[in-house]
Write a sequence for this structure.
């Protein structure tokens, strides 16, 4: 009798799931979708089968981006579990919530760590701002789940995931006890091989720039301050994979009169006007990454081949070469003072370091670029 009841129960759940997946029945408490909107099941199917075109179509048709199946799994989670990076990129570009959790408390990152066949999926979700500290009811985080996944465990990402998960207490304190700075990515690369972030506060984002009555918005990598040699022409790499959204291939250097006019207009303002600041960044490449983050590489002497607006770019690919474009040295026709200048933006609203003290910037930069990116010593008051 009990067994029969169990079978009936299983069958009715299956029937419900089937009807639900065809959009015939709704879940209790869920508001009915608009008549013309694609049901969430269409998007979930596209994500689970790893079909980016179908996912885009479903979204265009009005399917709810963060809608879930009866187990609380969103399209992002299903794409993550299958290792479907292309579908994942479509969902992330549409703004899918990386912090959403399933009925079992798993995030998309945890699904990827557990089941995606290669580490690229986990990397993509870390780059998109996923929090590796989220744990399920059994205390398992992405790290514990990835321990059983050879695709992640055997990859170069593993040590980075370990580092992010077992975060030094000193860095934790700087974030008011928060183990992870939500709203910022992780597992990025420092764009210059072997370089550390400068130990000088004046090279950090948020530093004042009196000559133009403004504020510095990036990390400067000057020779002698970043652990490796920096020269005119030193290659720079994409901090994370993404899409090139700006590449100043046909850049022409400012002349002295033009440069002076820019500085004059900045000095006459309360802050550096955006168009002036843009000109002073010289030749630039901008890359949009998963999760809506953008990196900007400024003062370049050249743009690497194939780096044009709209081109996809892989993490670690050379995107351009160090120069001094947009600076007074370049205007005077010299190759003096070459330095990478790298900014990290959340959309176009906030740059990493905005309004923060140097110690806080180092703490977040360590999450983004890895502990190895921190200078051996700093004047930001940090001691490791
Ligand atoms: Zn700079």
């Amino acid at each position: 009798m009990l067994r029969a009841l169990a079978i009936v129960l299983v069958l009715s759940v299956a029937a419900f799931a089937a009807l639900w997946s065809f959009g015939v029945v709704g879940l209790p408490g869920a508001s009915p979708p608009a008549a013309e909107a694609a049901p969430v099941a269409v998007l979930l199917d596209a994500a689970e089968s790893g079909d980016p075109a179908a996912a885009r179509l479903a979204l265009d048709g009005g399917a709810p981006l963060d809608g879930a199946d009866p187990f609380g799994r969103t399209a992002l989670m299903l794409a993550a579990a299958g290792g479907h990076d292309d579908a994942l990129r479509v969902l992330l570009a549409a703004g899918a919530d990386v912090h959403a959790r399933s009925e079992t408390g798993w995030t998309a990152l945890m699904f990827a760590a557990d089941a995606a066949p290669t580490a690229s999926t986990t990397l993509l979700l870390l780059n998109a701002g996923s929090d590796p500290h989220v744990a399920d009811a059994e205390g398992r985080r992405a790290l514990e789940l990835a321990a059983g996944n050879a695709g992640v465990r055997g990859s170069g990402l593993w040590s980075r995931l370990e580092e992010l998960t077992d975060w030094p207490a000193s860095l934790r304190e700087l974030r008011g006890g928060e183990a992870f700075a939500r709203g910022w990515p992780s597992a990025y690369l420092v764009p210059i091989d072997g370089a550390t972030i400068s130990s000088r506060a004046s090279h950090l984002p948020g530093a004042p720039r009196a000559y133009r009555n403004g504020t510095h918005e990036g990390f400067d990598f000057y020779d002698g301050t970043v652990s490796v040699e920096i020269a005119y022409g030193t290659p720079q790499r994409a901090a994370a994979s993404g899409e090139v959204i700006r590449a100043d291939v046909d850049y022409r250097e400012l002349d002295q009169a033009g440069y002076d006019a820019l500085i004059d207009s900045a000095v006459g303002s309360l802050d550096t006007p955006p168009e002036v600041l843009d000109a002073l960044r010289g030749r630039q490449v901008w890359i949009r990454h998963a999760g809506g983050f953008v990196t900007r590489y400024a003062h370049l002497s050249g743009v690497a081949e194939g780096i044009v607006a709209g081109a996809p770019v892989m993490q670690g690919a050379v995107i351009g070469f160090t120069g001094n474009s947009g600076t007074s040295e370049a205007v005077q026709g010299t190759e003096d003072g070459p330095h990478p200048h790298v900014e990290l933006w959340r959309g176009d609203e906030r740059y990493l370091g905005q309004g923060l003290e140097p110690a806080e910037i180092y703490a977040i930069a360590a999450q983004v670029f890895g502990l190895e990116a921190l200078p051996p010593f700093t004047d930001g008051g940090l001691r490791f």
